[in-house]
Amino acid sequence: MKPHLLLLTSAALVTLSFTPVASAEEASDSARPPYTTPSEVKSWQEGGTPVTFLDVRESDEFEAGHLPGAMNIAFDKVEGLADTLPHDKPLVIYCIHSAHRAPEAAKTLRRLGVDNAYVLEGGIAAWEAGGLTIHASDMTKAPHILPVTERCENKPAS
């Protein structure tokens, strides 16, 4: 649906149609990687499809709590390690809410030809909120998700 602009003139009501022009950021959004939900991932697993989880948070975040069997590669290191990732099964990438780091990592991998990369919609927070299990690296500690901080923002390293 095209946005409309209504103009009142002394003679009549005029409706103009226009098509908004996409910004550069919106245009790059066309390269948005596919997303998958926690319930869809569980359904893949229950159907016998093996899944690789890639946690792109920092190591302290991973150690506090992560998805079962996940590997940890910080999002800004993914490009250099793309060749080490499996290409034969879904690669489900997540961070806390999958708002910045996971989509960036998935875009990078897709650009490098890794076409099995998916972003976990809602991240580890949605996984846990859906009643699904997370683990801590130290089994003597209760798993938890570290709070969102400025490191969650997609900023270039300084």
| Secondary structure tally, helices | 6
**Cα distance, first to last residue?**
42 Å
Helix content: 25-40%
Q: What is the CATH superfamily classification?
A: Rhodanese-like domain
Beta-strand percent range:
15-25%
Q: Count of DSSP E strands?
A: 7
Contiguous low-pLDDT stretches (5 residues minimum) are 1-30
Largest sheet composition: 5 strands, parallel
The assigned structural class equals: alpha/beta
> Given the C-alpha coordinates, what overall shape results?
globular
| The top level CATH class name | Alpha Beta
Overall mean pLDDT stands at 82
The ordered H/E elements are EEHEHEHEHEHEH
CATH architecture assignment: 3-Layer(aba) Sandwich
- Rg, Cα atoms, Å: 20 Å
CATH topology annotation: Oxidized Rhodanese, domain 1
Domain count: the total is 1
Q: Strand order, main sheet: write it out.
A: 3-7-6-4-5
